[in-house]
Write a structure and sequence with these properties.
107 residues, alpha/beta, four-stranded parallel sheet, 4 helices
Length: 107
């Protein structure tokens, strides 16, 4: 199966998770990429369906080891063909210098 499109969805009140997840998505070169900003209330209310040749990457922060409730509710609007499974990425607060190195590919 060939990928046709990459989606990345994120909940990022401080924009850190968005930066990391967009960097991960951009590493899939030669594919169209579309973002879904779950920080926006109206966006969280929309329904999304992902086709079998599409990859979904989801990034959310973890607060006290838990995913924020608005994200859990938003994910109920996500459905797909079960061909490519979502990648669930939870990021804890990283020191700024580590995040900068990650985004430059210097891990």
């Amino acid at each position: 199966m060939q990928l046709l499109k990459i989606y990345y969805a994120y909940f990022s009140p401080g924009n850190t998770t968005e930066k990391v997840v967009s960097h991960i998505a951009s590493s899939f070169q030669n594919y169209p990429i579309e973002s879904i900003n779950l920080t926006d209330y109206a966006t969280r209310q929309e329904d999304y369906y992902f086709k079998e040749n599409e990859l979904l990457i989801i990034g959310v922060p973890a607060y006290g080891g838990r995913v924020p409730a608005p994200v859990v509710d938003a994910l109920r609007h996500f459905t797909g063909s079960n061909r490519i499974y979502p990648c669930w990425c939870c990021f804890f607060r990283l020191p700024a210098y580590i995040l900068k190195r990650m985004c430059r590919g210097q891990t």
